[in-house]
Amino acid sequence: MTDFIEGLPKAELHLHIEGTIEPETLFRLAARNAVDLRYDSVESLRAAYDFGNLQDFLDLYYQGMAVLQTEEDFYDVTWAYLEKAHAQNVLHAEIFFDPQGHTSRGVAFETAFEGVWRALEDGRERLGVSSRLIPCFLRDRDADEAKAALEQALHYRDRLIAVGLDSAERGNPPVKFKEVFDRARDAGLLTVAHAGEEGPADYVRQALDVLRVARVDHGNHAADDPALMERLARERVPLTMCPLSNLRLQVVADLRNHPLRRMLDNGLLVTVNSDDPAYFGGYINENYRAVQKALGLSNDELARIARNSFHAAFLPEEEKRALT
Ligand code: ADE
Ligand code: ZN
User: Total structural domains in the chain?
Assistant: First the structure.
């Protein structure tokens, strides 16, 4: 079974580049940039990765990204992810980054963007890993700040495929970002949003109806609403699910109850992804393995999920065909 998962060609569609900084790398970059960490060893940092909810994680995630200071740092972290993805037979990756997480602490948008981009180019040339880049707005900050971030991002319009929405969900409904998303779509970008991770099914509806998303990131709580489930299946809206993230952030108490099983059985277009692998204990194959085991997925079902990931990718059909 393990070999079967490793051998499956996969696309990864829900991956925060700032969530791929392994503790060892975090310490190395902190030393390189003379950044003070609140932890005195890799072990004590790892021990802190014991999250009660999304906010507990986000507190450490924003602290962790402070080690990213130079273009080289962004390059190194992105390159390390691409090597890992390549080793796990990821043929295509759509990568989130959080510009406001960097500009708010004095690192220029350009520094983050160019470092990540250069690694993606090298990944295409040297590893054959196809990729796209998706800046996300931080939903727990105000909409005007997101608007400013979008204007910065639009300087790089040709090198972006979509915009996204992430960070603390509860109390920050999609509708808060209607204008920003309207502007992004007017500029020809696709849209995605985290919805229904900790927030209710209604946030998934808002993401569809107000932000006009082409995919829903997570979407777990759509399972609470039968009419919404039926709509997601009928409209073939892809969901980028992240099982180990859900387990570690207590979105599900036990992977045996993960909604992916019911969604798959009801014909929803679900995919499996790693979210923030350095924090949640596994990259894409570990996520596939965990749901396979917990939900008893057959090889046919695993292959269907992997096929879904290419179907849901923001790539022209001919590029998809060339990959698979
Ligand atoms: N930022 C990084 N990972 C996230 C997640 N799982 N949910 C919301 N925001 C995030
Ligand atoms: Zn995420």
Answer: 1
